Amino acid sequence: MKNIVILALMVLISCQQDQSKVKIIPTTIDSLNSISDVEKFIRLKNKDFKDFNLVTIKNFKRNDERDIVFKRLADSLNVTQSFYKSDIDNNGFTDIIIMGDNHNCGDYPCVYSTLALMSFGKDSIRTIDFRKGLSHEFGIPKIISENNRQFLEFYSPIDLYGDDYKKAKRKYNKVALVYKFDAFIEKNENPKQYKIQKIEYETFGCYGSCPIFQLSLNSDYSGKFRAEHFNFEKSFQKGEEGNFSAKIDKTHYNQLVEILNYIDFPNLKNNYSVGWTDDQESKLKITYDNGKTKIISDYGLVGTYGLTRLHELLSELRHNQQWK
User: Fold this and answer.
1) CA torsion 298→301→307→313, rounded to 10°?
2) Is residue 4 in some structural domain?
3) β-sheet bridge partners, residue 127
4) Is there a single domain that holds both residue 209 and residue 299?
5) Which site among 57, 207, 218, 254 is 20 to 30 Å from 191 CA-CA?
6) In terms of residue numbers, what domain contains 133?
7) CB burial of residue 239 (10 Å; 0-12, 13-18, 19+)
8) In degrees rounded to 5, what are phi and psi of residue 141?
């Protein structure tokens, strides 16, 4: 009897291990084998990257001594290629990480870009630009496989503006990222379940036409939206202003609750700020667990990868709800 139980456990464990291995379904990405192939693919799939050239970190020539730190860190991580393929979100389709120059400054290389082309079958592709979530200049991706599952480790050198580059090369930030909520956010193995009662969100002006608005969302799905400037048109003119209300779609509201719990919002910093001026600031206030509150100010809207995605989802509510 004992042997039968042991055998049954071994079969169960084996089945669980097999189930964790996602079978890859071939798509066009699997046939991309050269730099030229990948360049043609990204230019075809996304017009914002029609001039993208793949370049390894080692061969990126910006003539800036800060790049010494960047290149040394890439060498130490053995990130030597300009593209890497893997099923990063574990959905059965091969994704691709590409690195290079999008010619943001014309012929002069000034920005090193890292993109993820996430595949969802039938050549359905979502492009993720990692620079949108960075409060610094560079990021180095490394694909990690753990228990037959993939995720990203994203490295960024710090003290890029310091004088001692030999010392700076050993300093870096590292964050583990998973693909969730249509974006890469910080990996959390054990998300908590807070009882969120109210979400309040406010944005402030910038040097330009950043949308200025206030949102108030309750757990009964009632919502209020105050539009102040630049919410309904992209020009520098004032858009429609006023106070609006709506019954928030449950799918959208529950997604906000899910991402807040996943990023463990009570344990985030109270203040985040980028290292430049004239950008936009937001204030997020969460009321939860019978009256507790958490307030997060984020100057630049890129405090963390999870917050960056949350800012996007909150901003999208202005246009995907039936406001009256």
Assistant:
1) 130
2) no
3) 117
4) yes
5) 218
6) 28-186
7) middle
8) -90, 145
